[in-house]
């Protein structure tokens, strides 16, 4: 496979099998940083990745060197190829008297025999073949064949009528069996049995780790960077004999979230904030003859000067990042304050960033309840019930008729200046922040991308949690209670004085979060043996 220079660092992703953009994945972001700035590193893949080439391209990593444990096991030498199309598949002839025909759909083709499906082709991107399912006479999936994006059958899996996997085989590109998993054991071919000193393993994880250890033994030293949520992290000790382990904790942690990092065989734990560093330092307990890992703070995203244009616009936009699973009692305090802010000035508008559709429903209910109170609609009235049916972003509130003209006009005036953004992409967040005047994130765990992107845009932020990205009364305010939000908003909206100070503070902080500084800090971690 592809290799880096004589001494490389190894990044171990834990990506799902889909061909998606993993915008917030820590290994994707770190690999992009290393790849664009010439740091010698490669991906070490311990999971099956039949569409890896497309994953790398989708995530801006097409030029990133990589090594795959499954490619090694399956003797795959090719680094690229052409996926199979539907025309490349061959089908057994139907029994005499049975009509066989395809039914085409948007995501695949179902092969029919008379009125019964007997096979289903699943397409990946571009209409290429990802898998073929074969059905038994009574309709259950008897076998599933998976295809690699380089143009060969990579695995076949067999199932019972209850959907239980009974057997799985991995193939070489020539079609010979390389690995078999069945009856509670995993068996390798003779070539790999000789390399690993045994033909059988208790499970696939142990086999994959043994293959990775075999590979790393022959490689020059370098660090292993593994995300804290990697499914094999707790078993990764055999890989660290000659390659120190760096655990990458990319999200914020509170004391209640703490899990001891990899039983202390980690060399270093990299965390995103000073708060998380403090949690780990306070919680990690030294063990006999085992060193406690060092803790290093490195932001998960780089900042880049992109000052917003809010002062050039006639509108004043607030960006409210709600946080996952918002508590209704907290929304009952926060939403009325923000509704009143909009009601006080017609040029004000708001973008409400929700993590999911369910969270958005919770927020909308709180928002409409607060709106009813602001415009004078009684909570036990028919008007209140009518108002609950109106979503934020409504341009025209002509229905329902239960609303009086006055209340309809008042509701429309506020609702048309609200927009709900559900799980927005990072580019959408950056685009919204370019037009934003002020960011509000009162969640216990703030969104670190929003925090860093706000610094890039020169925007003050109002938070409750102290992450280190916002310094109180410099580039934002850190409040201690939700009911302090009204005063905090007024601090930045009443005049430009404090807002201008925050812009200067953001610019002053940019160098510390720039990509070159992040790379420098990472290289210090990866040079430290």
TrEMBL record:
GO biological process, one term: protein transport
UniProt xrefs under InterPro entries: Accessory_SS_Asp1 (IPR022372)
Superkingdom: Bacteria
A Pfam family the protein falls into: Asp1
Protein name, entry field: Accessory Sec system protein Asp1
